[in-house]
Structures are given as structure tokens and as C-alpha cells.
């Protein structure tokens, strides 16, 4: 299982998400009209139930960070998306497991915004 890595997979992902946002029409199928979603749009879709938060399938063990965060997945897809979300407040961050994204930002979020002890 991996995040969308090829251009075609990423394009299909953007089309599916744009359909959910109501921003997709027949004339917007050209690559030049597709754009990556903003984090705000992703958070809105998460709150509307278009995404679910799943355990990180790429983590070898359930670390303190991954107990509090998960990857996003479209309801009708089996592949995780390149976003991590806080299970507590649903704040979304970019996360790409195939490009060695670290967890420093996720840890900082827990310490500064959700005031969570990392050992819990």
C-alpha cells in the first residue's frame, strides 16, 4: 500500500476529491485544471465524513505519535492519502511515507496545540 505516487494515480485522487467538494465538472478533466487541495479543504472534507482516519500502515510499530495521529483515506478507497490527521482535533498535515516525512511537526502539534503527553 502506498500513497499516490504516479501522476495518473494522483490525478484520479484529485478528481475524486473535487467531486466530493462539488468542484468537478466534465470540462475540468484536463490536467491543467486539476490542482492539489489546500489543507483547509482536506480538513473540511474530513469533518464532513468524506475521509476516515486510519492507523499508519507504514509504521513498523505504534509509536506515541501514531497513537494520536492517523493517515487519511477516502471512504471508498483502500489506499491512504498523503495526509496525517490528529485524532483529537482533526488538524491535517501533509505526510508522505514514501518520501521519508518525519514526525517532528506531528509531535510539535501534540505538545503545543493538543497539550498531549507523548507517553499517553
UniProtKB/TrEMBL annotation:
InterPro entries in UniProt: Znf_BED, Znf_C2H2_sf
Boundaries of every BED-type domain copy: 60-120
SUPFAM superfamilies per record: beta-beta-alpha zinc fingers
The keyword Lipid biosynthesis is assigned to this record: no
Entry GO MF terms: DNA binding; zinc ion binding
Protein's UniProt keywords contain Transferase: no
Pfam families for the chain: zf-BED
Top-level taxon of origin: Eukaryota
Keyword terms of this UniProt record: Metal-binding, Zinc, Zinc-finger
Name assigned to this protein: BED-type domain-containing protein
Amino acid at each position: 500500500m502506498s500513497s499516490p505516487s504516479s501522476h495518473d494515480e494522483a490525478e484520479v485522487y484529485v478528481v475524486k476529491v473535487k467531486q466530493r467538494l462539488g468542484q468537478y465538472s466534465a470540462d475540468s478533466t484536463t490536467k491543467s485544471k486539476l490542482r492539489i487541495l489546500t489543507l483547509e479543504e482536506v480538513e473540511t472534507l474530513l469533518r464532513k465524513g468524506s475521509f476516515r482516519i486510519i492507523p499508519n500502515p507504514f509504521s513498523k510499530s505504534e509509536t506515541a505519535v501514531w497513537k494520536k495521529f492517523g493517515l487519511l483515506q477516502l471512504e471508498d478507497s483502500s489506499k491512504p492519502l498523503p495526509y496525517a490527521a490528529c485524532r483529537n482535533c482533526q488538524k491535517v498535515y501533509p505526510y508522505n511515507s514514501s518520501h521519508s516525512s518525519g514526525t517532528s511537526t506531528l509531535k510539535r502539534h501534540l505538545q503545543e496545540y493538543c497539550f498531549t503527553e507523548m507517553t499517553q
